[in-house]
TrEMBL record:
It is an enzyme of class 5 (isomerase). It catalyses: uridine(13) in tRNA = pseudouridine(13) in tRNA. This is tRNA pseudouridine synthase D. Responsible for synthesis of pseudouridine from uracil-13 in transfer RNAs. Belongs to the pseudouridine synthase TruD family. It comes from Desulfarculus baarsii (strain ATCC 33931 / DSM 2075 / LMG 7858 / VKM B-1802 / 2st14).
Length: 347
C-alpha cells in the first residue's frame, strides 16, 4: 500500500465532508497548450460529456467518422465519473468540417462546443493543465472559516505536488508490483508493465517529497536542487540557495523532484545525496531502470495555487482551481478534508 502522505497544512483543522460520485459534483475543463489556427488536415472538436472515459470517446469518434483509432488524437486522459470538457483531433483532410460535426452530434452522447482545423494531431501532453470545479458535500460545522484558513496557508506555503491515490490502483498495490516489474519480474503485457512501473516511480517521488517535508525543507532550496522557472520551463542547478530563495518564495521558480530513470537529470551536492539515498534504501539502482527502459524525468515539487477559490453553497463547499498537467485535484482537497478523498482522474 502507498505510504501515508503528510499535510503541508497539518497545523490547521480540516473541514471533513465527502465527495459524491455524481458527475455534476466534479467538473473538469482541459486547458489547451495552443489553439487551432483554422487550417490543416486535422479537425479539432471540443466536447463536453459524462459517463464516458477518454478512450470511450476516442472509439466512438473513430466509428462515427469512419476512421481507425490511430487517427484520433487527445491531449489527456479523463475519467468517466465527471462532467468533462476536452478537445480531440481527427485526421480528416477531405471531409468538410460541418459534415464531421453533424456525424459527431448524431452518434455521440456529448455536446459539441466547437470545431476547427489544425495542422497536427493532438498528442498526450499537449495541454497546460485542467480547471476543476468540485462540490464537497456535508462538511463539518464552521467549514467556511476553516477552509478560508487552509486556502490562505496554501497560498503562502504552496502545495506539495504529490501523486494522488488514483495512481496506485484500486487496491493500492500497483507500486509494489511496479518494483518487481523494474527488477524484471513484471507482466509481459507492455501497457500493464508500463502502468505498474510508473506507479513505482510515482511512489518513490512521493517518498522523496514526504521526507523533504518531514525535514522542514518543503519551502527551502538546497544546494544542488534542480530548479524550474515557472514562466519559461527552463531548468538549472541551484548553486546559491540564499540568492534564489526569493524567487521560490514568490513563485517564479520551483524545485523539482526525481522521477527515477536511466536518463534522469540528477540533482547535485546535498540535494543529489537525498535523491540517491531513496534508491539506496530501496536496494535498486540506475541500471535497473535502464534495463526496464525507463528514461525518467523531473517533476515540480511545489505548486503555487494563485487561482484557488472556495465558496459556500446550500449543498456544501464549492472549490474552483486550476492545476498543471499531471497534478491531482485530490491532493488539493486532502489538505482541506484532512483525509484521503477519492475522485475522478484527470491528467
Amino acid at each position: 500500500m502507498p505510504r501515508a502522505l503528510p499535510y503541508v497544512t497539518a497545523d490547521l483543522p480540516g473541514v471533513g465532508g465527502e465527495l459524491k460520485a455524481e458527475p455534476s459534483h466534479f467538473v473538469v475543463e482541459e486547458l489547451p497548450l495552443y489553439a487551432p489556427d483554422g487550417q490543416g488536415e486535422h479537425i479539432y472538436v471540443n466536447l463536453t460529456r459524462q459517463g464516458l472515459t477518454t478512450k470511450d470517446v476516442c472509439r466512438a469518434l473513430a466509428k462515427a467518422l469512419g476512421l481507425s483509432e490511430d487517427a484520433i488524437g487527445v491531449a489527456g486522459q479523463k475519467d468517466k465519473h465527471a462532467i468533462t470538457t476536452q478537445t480531440f483531433s481527427a485526421h480528416l483532410p477531405d471531409m468538410p468540417e460541418e459534415t464531421a460535426r453533424q456525424l459527431i452530434e448524431a452518434n455521440l452522447s456529448a455536446r459539441v462546443n466547437w470545431t476547427s482545423r489544425h495542422h497536427n494531431k493532438l498528442k498526450l501532453g499537449h495541454l497546460l493543465g485542467n480547471r476543476f470545479r468540485i462540490l464537497l458535500s456535508r462538511p463539518d460545522d464552521g467549514a467556511q472559516e476553516k477552509a478560508a484558513a487552509v486556502a490562505q496557508a496554501l497560498a503562502r506555503r504552496g502545495l506539495p505536488n504529490f501523486f494522488g491515490p488514483q495512481r496506485f490502483g484500486l487496491d493500492g498495490d500497483n507500486a509494489a508490483k511496479g518494483r518487481q516489474a523494474v527488477l524484471g519480474h513484471g507482466p509481459r503485457d507492455k501497457w500493464l508493465r508500463k502502468l505498474l512501473c510508473s506507479a513505482y516511480q510515482s511512489q518513490l517521488f512521493n517518498t522523496w517529497l514526504s521526507r523533504r517535508m518531514a525535514d522542514g525543507l518543503f519551502d527551502r532550496l538546497l544546494i544542488g536542487d534542480v530548479a524550474k522557472k515557472t514562466d519559461t520551463g527552463g531548468i538549472f542547478n541551484v548553486e546559491d540557495p540564499d540568492a534564489e530563495q526569493p524567487r521560490l518564495d514568490d513563485g517564479r521558480i520551483t524545485y523539482t523532484g526525481p522521477i527515477y530513470g536511466g536518463k534522469m537529470l540528477w540533482a547535485k551536492d546535498e540535494a543529489g545525496q537525498r535523491e540517491r539515498q531513496i534508491l539506496a534504501e530501496e536496494d535498486i539502482g540506475e541500471a535497473d531502470f535502464k534495463r526496464a527502459r525507463l528514461s525518467g524525468s523531473r517533476r515540480p515539487a511545489r505548486l503555487v495555487l494563485d487561482e484557488l477559490r472556495v465558496e459556500p453553497t446550500d449543498q456544501g463547499l464549492a472549490f474552483d482551481f486550476a492545476l498543471p498537467k499531471g497534478s491531482y485535484a485530490t491532493v488539493v482537497l486532502r489538505e482541506f478534508m484532512k483525509s484521503e478523498p477519492h475522485a475522478p482522474q484527470a491528467d
